[in-house]
Amino acid sequence: MVETIDAAAHAHVGSAFAAVDSAAIRVHRERCAKVRNRNVDCLKCAAACTSGCISLEEGELVIDASKCVGCGTCATVCPTCALESLNPTDAELKAACLRAVREGEAREVVIACSQMEEALGDLAIPDSMASVVCAGRVDESLLAGLAAEGVQRVTVLCGMCDRCAQRHGRDTAELVAETTRNVLAAWGNAMEVVVTDVPPASIMADAAPVHAALEARDAFFGCERACPPIRDEYDSVMNDFALSDSVGADFGLPCVPAPDESSRSADAFPTGAPVPAAGSESAAPLSLSSPEAEAADTTVGPGMRFYWNSGHTRKVAAHSMHVMKDGTLPHFLPDRRERLLDALARIGEPMEGKLESRLWGAVVIDGTKCVSCRMCATFCPTGAIAKFDEADGAMGVTHAPADCVKCGSCQDVCPADAITLLDAVPTTWLSDGSHHRYAMTPRPVSLVDNPHQILDTFRLDFKGDIFER
To answer: Final residue of a domain: which of 174, 189, 220?
Structure first.
C-alpha cells in the first residue's frame, strides 16, 4: 500500500505518516509541524529519507512504508522529533558507543553503518564499533553527549556511498558532523567528528593493515548495496496484524526481538481488552476494521490510546489534539534537545558570540506588521513562543530561543508576514534560558465583512478566554 497525498493537504498528512510507524520508527503525529498546521513548509523527512519510503514527487507526498529500512535518518532531521528512532534507541546507541570507546592517543568512538560493518567482517576487532543502519542515524545530541563523557574523537564510518542505495544518508551525517563541530567549538570543546569510508587502524584486528580493510570494502561494494526493508510484506502488516510469537520474523524485523511473554500480561493491554495467549485462537490475524480491533483501540487516559501494531499493543499519543486553556495546541520539547543542552552544560560555559546552526533560531516580530493574533504561539510545537495575558490587560508573547527547534512554523503561519526567524543566535541565550517579551495590543473588532465579529467581541469582553472548537 502506497499513500499519495497533496503535500499541502492537512487532513491526511497525519494518517499517511502513521503508515511509517513500526518497530524501527515511532511516529508522534501530534508533534509534526505539518500535521499541526498545513501551511507549515517543513518536509525535511522527505528530503532526507534514504530509501524512498517518504518522498516528495511533483508536489505530492508519497509514503511507501514497504521501503523503510529503519535507518532513522528521517528522525535525525525532524526538528520536533515527530519521528523517533528505535533501531536502536538513542539510549541504546549511546550505551553502545561508550562500550566501544578505544583508548589511545585520543579517546575514540567509531560508529559504523551496517554495510561497512558487514564489509569489514572479521578484519575488525569484535565490539570495537557501535552499529547503525545508516550514518544518517547519528545526531548532535549523541555526539555532544559523547563529548561530555570525555570522548575526543568520533569517527562515523560509512561504506562506499556511491555504491549504496542509501547513499545520501551521508549528506545528513556530514550535516550533523559540521553542526556538532560548530556547536562544540562555541562551548570551547575540540572533539573531532569525522565522516569517512576509511576504517581507522584502532579497530583493525591483529594489527591488520588498513589496506586490507580497503580491499575488503572495495570487494564488498563491487555491486550495488542496499539495506533490507524492515517490512517486506507491508500490506500484511497494515491489514492483518498477527499476534503470534513469529510475527517479527514473518514481517522482516530481524533487528528487533519479538516481545517476550511478559509483554502479553494483562498490564500490557487496555482494561477490558482480551489478552491473547501464544498459540491460542485469539492469536489469529486480526483486521483493523474488525469489532475486536475497535474494542482494543480503547482510550485509556488523557491523550493516550492503545492500538494494534505489528502483533502487539502499546501506548501512543492520540492523533486528535485538544486545544489547551490558553488557546494553543499542546507543546513538546524534544528529549534530544534537552539532552543536547544538558551535555553542553556539562561541558561548560559557551564563549561569547553567535552560533549559526540548523538547531536553533531567534524569532523577531515586526510590531508594525503584527496583528496580535498570536497564531505563532498557537502552533509553536515546543512552546518556544508562548502567550502571556496579565491582570493589567498587558498581552503578547514571549520567545525562548533555547526551546526553538527552527521548524519555521511561526514564520509560515503568520498571516501578516511579521515574523523573521534568524539563523544566528547568541550563545548566552541558549545557556541562560533567555526569554524575550513581545507586547501586543488586542485585535480590533471589525463589524464589516467579519464572520467572526461575535467571537471577536466576546474575546475582548472576556480578555481572550474564549476558544473555537
So the answer is: 220
pLDDT for the residue numbered 9? 52
Q: Which domain CATH number covers 189?
A: 3.40.50
Mean pLDDT, residues 278-289 taken together: 35
| Domain that includes residue 51, residue range | 3-85+230-317
Give a yes or no: residue 341 inside a domain: no
Could you write out the three-class secondary structure of the chain?
CCEEEECCCCCCHHHHHHCCCCCCEEECHHHCHHHHCCCCCCCHHHHHCCCCCEEEECCEEEECHHHCCCCCHHHHHCCCCCEEECCCCHHHHHHHHHHCCECCCCCEEEEEEHHHHHHHHHHECCCCCEEECCHHHCCHHHHHHHHHCCCCEEEEECCCHHHECCCCHHHHHHHHHHHHHHHHHHCCCCCEEEEECCCCHHHEHHHCCHHHHHHHHHHHCCCCECCCCCCCCHHHHHHEECCCCCHHHHCCCCCCCCCCHHHHCHHHCCCCCCCCCCCCHHHCCEECCCHHHHHHCCEEECCEEEEEECCEEEEEECCCCCCCCCCCCCCCCCHHHHHHHHHHHHHCCCCCCEEECCCCCEEEECCCCCCCCCHHHHHCCCCCEEEEECCCCCEEEEECHHHCCCCCHHHHHCCCCCEEEECEEEHHHHHCCCCEEEEECCCCCCCCCCCCHHHHHHHHHCCCCCCCC
So what's the pLDDT on residue 314? 37
